[in-house]
Amino acid sequence: MEFIHILDTINNLSPYVQTTSRHPKQNMSLFLFFITLPILLSSATATTTTTTYPFDISYHIDCGGLTNSTDQFNTTWLSDRFFTAGSSAIVSEPLRFHSLPEKTLRFFPITSGKKNCYIIPNLPNGRYFVRTFTVYDNYDGKSHPPSFDVSVEGTFVFSWRSPWPETTSRDGAYSDIFTFVNDGEADVCFYSIATDPPVIASLELAQVDPSSYDSASVGDNQILVNYGRLTCGTNEWGPGFSNDVDLFGRLWQADLDFRSQNSAGFNALSTPKSISNTGQPPNYFPMKLYQQAVTLTRNGPLEYELPVDAKLDYLVWLHFAEIDSSVRAGQRVFDVFVNDMNVTRVDIYKQVGGFAAYTWHYTVKNLSSSVLSVKLMPVVGKPIISGLENYALVPADLSTVPEQVVAMRALKESLRVPDRMGWNGDPCAPTSWDAWEGVTCHPNKNESALVVFQIDLGSQGLKGYISDQISLLSNLVSLNLSSNSLGGTLPSGLGQQSLVRLDLSKNQLTGSIPENLASSNLQLVLLNDNLLEGRVPEELYSVGVHGGAIDLSDNKGLCGLAPLPECPLFWENGSLSRGGKIAIGLSSLFVFSVVVLVIYIFCIRRGRNDYDFGLPQDLMCKCDLMKLKSITAFAFLVLFPIYVSVWKCFIMPSFDLPYSF
Ligand SMILES: *[C@@H]1O[C@H](CO)[C@@H](O)[C@H](O)[C@H]1NC(C)=O
Ligand SMILES: *[C@@H]1O[C@H](CO)[C@@H](O)[C@H](O)[C@H]1NC(C)=O
Ligand SMILES: *[C@@H]1O[C@H](CO)[C@@H](O)[C@H](O)[C@H]1NC(C)=O
Ligand SMILES: *[C@@H]1O[C@H](CO)[C@@H](O)[C@H](O)[C@H]1NC(C)=O
Ligand SMILES: *[C@@H]1O[C@H](CO)[C@@H](O)[C@H](O)[C@H]1NC(C)=O
Ligand SMILES: *[C@@H]1O[C@H](CO)[C@@H](O)[C@H](O)[C@H]1NC(C)=O
Ligand SMILES: *[C@@H]1O[C@H](CO)[C@@H](O)[C@H](O)[C@H]1NC(C)=O
């Protein structure tokens, strides 16, 4: 029934209204990040086909989509991939959406954990444009858009809070950012605020010129979050919206909604003429941007107002071109005021001549208002503008020390941490979110990175083992894996000096306690109710001596100091101890020597005394002597190999004897 209703209404809908049309409100950035392909479509009208564009890495992911597809602008969309969990769904009114990727979405129910990500692998380090399309459209029939946060590369960038504005909820919105990727993969993570599943309909990423947008002075530790990218005097355009090229995949929004005065006084201009200085590195601003402009029919200022979030720095880019062929130097001069501060005087023709692009940018520090205003005050003639961009400069958050990320991923694998715990993305970042469930993090000493401080996974039904990579967690103070079903042995990697509390009780850990598990800082060691055996390292007892607590009870066969049973003298780890082997070796050598000596004394020596000085001709004696000598030889030939075999088999199997025979 509902479907028929939709069919009835679609004709009334204008195509791209939904996307991009609104700006971030407070607490809500509607522009998500996404990647767009650089090499999209060849624009039929494009005057300048851009020469070779050197950045060719891009992904367009149709979240929730089951098949690869190509859209009407020849963008290839990949079926859904690179996600950590979640399920796919379809918007409730698919026919209202114009491209396939907008109709399907991925949502991350709470059973997938609080934090889920898309992790795009194998990316060369560099700068990337990331774009998302987010829509709710009551896909779940609950009429309740979710509240969630989004991070890119471990830095929190977007915040969605229920209730969403009606049009955003129904039509969706694009958001985008520029970020650096320095770890070979781009992660875009979603953090559920309440229990409603975060949603994402499409995700795009494209490599861009690393020096774009003045990154040399902005720095590579800033993420540029789009708070408005306007094209003046025209409709929105860009990849996915029109056939016009933008090599970065930037979407240019119509400026109409952001002009601060009555539009009656505005005059849109356009020219089919080619504009010089466009499509150039590092920003590759498209020519189309400069072929249109807005000026005034009246006297006075030309002003735009963009909604922003206070207390951030903003990077404002203004785009100009003199496209009125009658204007010459000195005939159109105006001052630019950003939030009522005079920041520059512009005479486009004087600076670059006619039909040439002129860009100018400015950074607003610590904006105190929730509106950013850009006012062009006429000095001579009427002001003109082609485009305007505004990016919040979001400092990259701290991220987890890379070795500790490796360790945590290894533990996730080895402990078989269930999906519901959301162990995805960076274990600790962004700092404004909780770390992975059960994990506590801190900044390191010089506050340059985050480190894992505590792991608390008691009673989580874990069935794996403890990876030896845990040794990389060099700041781990407390580890509680008690009351699970962990098997395997205690890794020797568990000997970090930082460790103070260790509770591995009530598992099925086997083997012995490694010698190095004796950090002088340990105050609590609970290894009771396991299957441990063998000698307990004596240093471990000092835990108790220093006022800490230690519990080794209910294991398979631990031994050592009281109250544990004494260790069998030569028995350790379920086999002969080194001492035992040496002792057996020495005693068999001793026995062997004694036997040889006895034979020598009682046979050979006596034979000599009794017979050697006797008559050699005495046959009887000779006979006895021969007998005794053969007994001795027999003793040698039989006992020595037995001795050697004992040595080789039991005592030092891995060592060759110093002599061979
Ligand atoms: C989609 O395309 C990618 C790469 O071009 C390919 O690896 C993948 O198998 C395709 N998926 C489907 C569902 O056809
Ligand atoms: C898309 O690509 C095909 C073949 O590559 C081409 O024939 C077609 O004109 C392209 N469409 C657009 C909109 O660029
Ligand atoms: C605005 O600043 C420019 C230089 O940045 C200066 O030339 C101009 O006179 C100033 N305009 C006003 C009205 O103060
Ligand atoms: C930003 O401005 C606010 C007041 O508007 C001030 O309290 C805050 O300290 C400033 N922050 C920085 C980093 O300058
Ligand atoms: C911070 O300390 C770590 C080691 O703890 C070191 O590798 C890093 O270089 C230090 N960073 C700064 C900025 O001092
Ligand atoms: C470890 O976790 C278990 C179960 O969550 C809890 O009962 C126990 O008290 C914890 N151990 C320590 C030392 O806090
Ligand atoms: C006993 O086992 C521990 C750990 O499994 C090992 O470190 C130690 O070397 C073993 N001792 C002997 C004598 O094999």
Please tell me about this protein's structure.
With 661 residues, the chain is α+β, with helices and mostly antiparallel strands. It folds into four domains: 2-214, Galactose-binding lectin (Jelly Rolls, Sandwich); 253-395, Galactose-binding lectin (Jelly Rolls, Sandwich); 402-567, Leucine-rich repeat, LRR (right-handed beta-alpha superhelix) (Alpha-Beta Horseshoe), CATH 3.80.10.10; 578-651. The protein has ten helices and 36 strands. The strands form nine sheets. Strands 1, 7, 10, 13, 14, 15, 19, 22 and 25 form a nine-stranded mixed beta sheet that branches. Strand 20 (333-338) and strand 21 (341-346) form a beta hairpin. The longest helix is centred in the last third of the chain and has 35 residues, at 578-612. The radius of gyration is 39 Å and the shape is elongated. Residues 1-50 and 653-661 have low confidence and may be disordered.
Topology, please?
Elements: H1 2-9, E1 58-62, E2 69-70, E3 76-77, E4 87-90, H2 100-103, E5 104-107, E6 115-120, E7 126-134, E8 148-152, E9 155-160, H3 166-171, E10 173-181, E11 186-192, E12 199-200, E13 202-208, H4 215-218, E14 222-231, E15 253-254, E16 266-270, H5 287-290, E17 292-296, E18 302-307, E19 313-321, E20 333-338, E21 341-346, H6 348-352, E22 357-364, E23 371-380, E24 384-385, E25 387-395, H7 402-415, E26 439-443, E27 450-456, E28 478-480, E29 501-503, E30 510-511, E31 524-526, E32 531-535, H8 541-545, E33 549-551, E34 557-559, E35 571-572, E36 575-576, H9 578-612, H10 619-651
Parallel strand pairs: 14-15, 27-28, 28-29, 29-31, 30-32, 31-33, 32-34
Antiparallel strand pairs: 1-13, 2-3, 4-5, 5-12, 6-11, 7-10, 7-13, 8-9, 8-11, 10-14, 14-25, 16-17, 17-24, 18-23, 19-22, 19-25, 20-21, 20-23, 26-27, 35-36
The protein binds 2-acetamido-2-deoxy-beta-D-glucopyranose (NAG) (7 copies).
The site of one 2-acetamido-2-deoxy-beta-D-glucopyranose has 4 residues, from strand 21.
